[in-house]
Structure formats: structure tokens, C-alpha cells
Design brief:
Helix content is 37%, strand content 23%. By secondary structure, it is of the alpha/beta class.
Amino acid sequence: MEWIVVADASHARLLRRERDDEPLVAVSTWRHDASHDKPSETGSDRPGHSAADWRAGGSRFEPRIDPRRKEHARFAAEVAARLEPAAVGGEYGRLSLYAPAAFLGELRAALGRHAQERLRVAVDVDLVAYGLDELERRIARALHAHEPQQHARP
């Protein structure tokens, strides 16, 4: 069985497919509205500063993390928290991720070891707005474009 995650920084859908020739089935949906909030609503709208005092007893201040990026990481961890125990329990054998590059990086970083072992493909593409029928076509197209190019030999 394959689990497919179609996501962006504020929406994620978990789909499954028993075999490659079977249709996708929706399993669950997540929304993370905080990813759309203005930075002033999720934290300070003024970036932090970075300073270091390397003297004995000195202080070091790290720059603040962008509040939006922090919310993206939080949402990626929420999605990954569903994937890891299912991988450990053998609920799926393959995992495919489809998300825009920035969120795809957050999601991959949040995956646990067992989910990473089952990761078949991670594709930089935004598909969250599409219904199941259109997702079938677009996932097939994204997979085809993602496959390593076969080079003809003379």
C-alpha cells in the first residue's frame, strides 16, 4: 500500500492507494491557518538581532526565527507525526510527498526514520487545490517528469 501526502504550508491531504492501478482514496485532511497569519499575529514583526560576546561570562543572542517559518515547521511536524507511527505499524509500504519546495523541505526534515525509509519520491509541485480525479493525472505527470531520464546509447 502507498500513502500519498499532497501539501503546502497550510493544507495537507493524506491519500492512499492499494496498488498502482487503483484509484486514490482520501484518508484525512489537515488545515493550519496560522501559516497564513501576518507575522505580527504569530510573533514579533521586527526581526531579532544576532550578537555574540565571546568573553568569559559574555552573552550570545541568536537571531529570531521567522514566525511564518516556525508555523510551517510546526505544521510539517504535525503531518509527520501521523506518518511515523503508521510506518512503524506497517500501515503503508511506500510514501510519496508532493509539496512546494519550501514546505517539502520542512516536511522531509520532520519525517521520522521509519517514514523516511518508506519514502519513494518527494516532488516539488503544488497540488493541494485539485480534486481526486485531477490529482490522479497530475501525480502521474509529476512522477513521469521526476523519473531519471533514460539516455539512449549509440
